[in-house]
Amino acid sequence: MSQFSPLDAEIRDLLRFAAQRSMLPRYRALREDEVEMKGEDDPVTVVDREVEEFLTEALTRLAPDVAVVGEEAVAADAKVMERLAGPCWIIDPLDGTANFASGEGHFGIMVALADAGEAVAGWIYDPVRDRLCHSKKGEGAFIDGERVFAKVSGETPPNLAAMKGFMPDAQRALFEAEIEPHYAIVKAPRAACEQYPLVAFGGHDLAIYERTLPWDHAAGCLFLNEAGGACLRRDGSPYRVDDGRKGMIGSANRVLFDDLAERLIKAGYMPADA
């Protein structure tokens, strides 16, 4: 049975319009002066800024009393993060910016609605596939209105995607020595908009994250949990958009989650704020 609410349709149309206007025409056609670096290996493009500006304005019109937290707004003013404590939209205007800028790999737009630090709805739009993954807390996970359920790859050992580039050197060495031998390590797509569906749909069994910024994870974490997977902090506590903590595991089911979390603890990998 299809479940596609008026709000889902409104968000889909906004994301589709933003992609068709700003994103797809510039894919593999960015000029050199349309890309700059915010930090090491952290590019930002004119597309990021155009899409965030458009969505900020559109979502504010849709819900004037709900704050907006956009990735680029936070880059310009860190105090914007304080809005995460109350009702807010969370925008990643171009997830997978490095992929988009290089012309290789996956990219998309992610929007979440949060309240009191908890994501209550999320939308992940893939402009190349014209696919919308969406979820609401307690109501399940859907693709274009059709309900979906998480599944495992069936591979032995299970597939694990690890964002090792964000691990401190000592953590990375420990991970490679103590954790990797128990899994088939698969390449992460460098885009949460693709990583979460990969885990939900059996492409990857697990993903381990170090950096868990709200625009990267609010929508995807909710989607995976609502699909029947397990996306939690490494100590088993829920992900909150406003706590500033690091470290999270996304898995196709709770058994896989518990096994990896236990291995991390036994290896002494888990940091104090996990």
Question: Which keywords apply here?
Answer:
alpha+beta, five-stranded mixed β-sheet, 274 residues, 14 strands, single chain, 34% helix
What does this protein structure show overall?
This protein has helices spanning 6-23, 46-62, 71-76, 97-102, 169-178, 192-200, 214-226, 254-267, and strands at residues 35-39, 42-45, 67-70, 88-95, 108-115, 118-126, 131-136, 140-143, 146-148, 159-162, 184-186, 206-209, 230-232, 248-251. The protein is of the alpha+beta class and 274 residues long. The protein has a seven-stranded mixed beta sheet with strand order 3-4-5-6-7-8-9, with helices on both faces. The chain has a five-stranded mixed beta sheet with strand order 11-10-12-14-13, with helices on both faces. Strands 1-2 form a two-stranded antiparallel ribbon. Helix 1 runs antiparallel to helix 2 (46-62) and helix 6 (192-200) packs parallel to helix 7 (214-226).
Question: What kind of oligomer do you see?
Answer: single chain
Please describe the biggest sheet, giving its number of strands, its sense, and whether it closes into a barrel: 7 strands, mixed
Residue ranges: pLDDT <50 for 5 or more in a row? none
Strands in their spatial order, largest beta sheet: 3-4-5-6-7-8-9
Class based on secondary structure composition and strand pairing: alpha+beta
* Shape descriptor: globular
Whole-number average pLDDT? 95
Query: What is the number of E strands?
Result: 14
% residues in beta strands: 25-35%
Number of alpha- plus pi-helical segments: 8
Gyration radius over CA: 18 Å
Determine the N-to-C terminus distance: 39 Å
Order of secondary-structure elements: HEEHEHEHEEEEEEHEHEHEEH
Helix content: 25-40%
